[in-house]
């Protein structure tokens, strides 16, 4: 590879808001056959809103929302902010939790006003040995609408189902279409539930979905895509995404994402706009063509 064309290529990319950390990254990207993307914060804005809350009979809406929002106050998960904002908008005054801890990949457990509050995905309720009462059909419908259903247990009793929805970013759909035109397969890897992930993938035209992937297993999901020697690039933003960014043949981080993701990646998309990915790929291809 001539160092000059690589320098020109990285320079042009920088003008487009794509930072290649090395010439090797620029040379490597053109060989990509599959692009895998994280969902939350990468394809979607990462700023979900609370859209639904249905109670088990006997529970009171204001009190359930107040307890859950109090529990979520110290969490940095985007879901936590959605719930806290909704409670504040309704004028509920929150209590400082006596304790609060994430259950990674499952949800959150806290004690608020001497009440044990557990909130998270359906698999978290299964882990706790709790049934989902009559919420099954509703959860499926929420998922099909692209919303993420969550469950709340208070003192070990199922109290409510709620849902958050995270809007798709401007440019995501176009980026997927451009990658298809460039001949790539596009996959999504997410911790979110299957129906929700499939609904979002459908809206975006994504070919393949791996959902309900636990935080420690995202790298394994990338490795599965690499089977048979396929070259895989991964795009992500979260702390959870760092191992997958490292495992991929090329890792691309969203510049506004977490420091760990940005540090681990080979390429940084300065804006969150995913159209940077097909642009970067096109540049990588042009650069290599000039070298050969
Ligand atoms: P992702 O960021 O892809 O959603 P996570 O591993 O962070 O992956 O979370 C997996 C799932 O666990 C979430 O989709 C959600 O259902 C649940 N969860 C995680 N953190 C929280 C939280 N603070 N409050 C409620 N649910 C949570
Ligand atoms: Mg993310």
UniProtKB/TrEMBL annotation:
It comes from the Bacteria. It is found in: Cell membrane; Endomembrane system. Belongs to the cation transport ATPase (P-type) (TC 3.A.3) family. Type IB subfamily. This is Lead, cadmium, zinc and mercury transporting ATPase. It comes from Deinococcus marmoris. The chain holds residues 457 to 748 of 826 of the full protein.
